[in-house]
Every structure is written in C-alpha cells, then in structure tokens.
Amino acid sequence: MAKKSVASLQTGSKRLSKAIKMVKSPKTGAYTFVEAIMDPANVKDFLNKK
Length: 50
What we know:
This protein has about 50 residues and is mainly beta. The longest helix is centred in the C-terminal third of the chain and has 6 residues, at about 45-50. The protein is built from one helix and three strands; from the N terminus they run βββα. The radius of gyration is 13 Å and the shape is elongated. It has one helix at about 45-50; strands at about 1-5, 15-25, 30-40. It is about 10% helix and about 40% strand. It has a three-stranded antiparallel sheet. This is DUF4295 domain-containing protein. Pfam families: DUF4295.
C-alpha cells in the first residue's frame, strides 16, 4: 500500500495523489495492483476499503 504525490498530477491549485493498493484475487490467490488518482483526503478511505 503506497501513497505517492506525482508532480505531473498537480495542476493549478488542485493537488492529486496516486494511490496504489495490492489486492489478492479470491479466485486465483494471485496479487494484483489497483491504482487510482484522487484527492489526498480520500486516500485513507481507498486504502482501507476491501
């Protein structure tokens, strides 16, 4: 689980963060990465959601 501020995502007065979460597939048991670009205030909710 990672939180990364990307310079190319910061446009004008709006700050965005890229959150990357590792998710285990219930079908195969393999891990996949889910990426999302969002407001920094929503990152904790994204990372805590299953």
